[in-house]
Specification:
- With about 425 residues, the protein is of the alpha+beta class.
- The chain is built from three helices and 21 strands.
- The protein has three domains: about 180 residues, Efflux pump adaptor protein, beta barrel domain (Elongation Factor Tu (Ef-tu), domain 3, Beta Barrel), CATH 2.40.30; about 70 residues, OB fold (Dihydrolipoamide Acetyltransferase, E2P); about 130 residues, Helix Hairpins, CATH 1.10.287.
- The strands form four sheets. The chain has a six-stranded antiparallel β-barrel.
- About 20% of the residues are buried.
- It is found in: Cell envelope.
- Its main location: other.
- Keywords: Coiled coil.
Length: about 425
Amino acid sequence: MDISVTNKKQNRLKSLWPFALLIVVIALALNYSFSLAQADFFVDDETMVYAKVKQGNFYVSVRGTGTLVADNIQWLAASVDGHVERVVVKPGKVVKKGELIIALSNPQLQQLLEETEWELEANIAESKASEVEQKSAILFQKAQMLDAKMNFESSKLKLDAQKELFDKKSGAVSRIDYEKTTLETAQLNQRWQIQDKIWQTMIENLVAQNNARQSRLNKMRKTLERAEQQVKNLMVYATLDSVVQEVAVEPGQRITMGSSLAKLAQQGSLIAELQVAELLISEVRIGQQVIVDTRNSKVSGVVSRIEPTVVNGSVQVDVDFTQALPSDARPDLSVEGEIKITDIANALYVSRPIFAQSNSTSTLYKLDDDGDFAQRTQVKLGKGAINEIQIIEGLALGDKVVISDTSSWQNFEKIRIN
């Protein structure tokens, strides 16, 4: 009898098991249907990227890459025509001011210099000969003037003596002799005055001729100086302590006046030219602090200039250094720069979602506590760094949000994550 009762109970349980399994399946299906009903869309978890809202010091910076360039660059140009005889230095060499860079040759300039020297010597000799001749003529004229003066003075003495005797009416001097002496004295006086004026005029003419000769000699000396300078310009020297960045000529090459010969960059006056993405340039201001990484060291600087135009999606930012550059710094060295925008204490921030813009209102999907659903949430964003962005409103510390691309289901209020 006991065995019969036990068998009946086992058979009853076996018959109830399918119904229990059906109830469980129905319950799970109802729960799944209820879950689906709560979401407008569902996505796979493997396609999502999440980030948690953090709190702390929020450092905002903008990065850019570029090169070191010389603030003081000079191109050496040819001042004369010629042939390149020697290239003394090569690009990359450090040179001192006055050091020979390139040697040119021009036989015509050498010949012109010699001819100008000879012509100047001849002009000097001719000028001296003319001056001596004029001085001799002046001396001869002075002698004639003095002779005329002496004749006048002698006649004057005779006239004075005759006048004294004639006035006494002693009869020693006749009236005819007295009048004749008076006339001769007047003539000799006029002759003396004329000879004196001729002498004075010759002296003035000598001064004028000397000035004219000196002007011609000065002109010739200037011509000689110019010829000498042209010959000196065949030797091209460094105009400042610098690095030779480029040599634009080769030995044997013919060049004309004004041709570029070599490019010099002053090594001690380097700046950094950084290329910053146009989307990030709105935060950059003149005077902001910059850390420039030369790969071997980091150097502080400040933003000194921002290019007003965009080229190939980037804007050039010039950085002046506020501390000494390392010894390995040289023109065209590749560098990276980090421009400090702001440093906010005790700020809420999160890893930067795709398409998130600084100082804007954006739509983000915030996950619930279980991580099964994501709710569309309006979030006010603040300052944006390279990889992170500040949260002003809409999220709290510890909230988890989707930072991957949500554009395909942006219009749905709530999504389920599978």
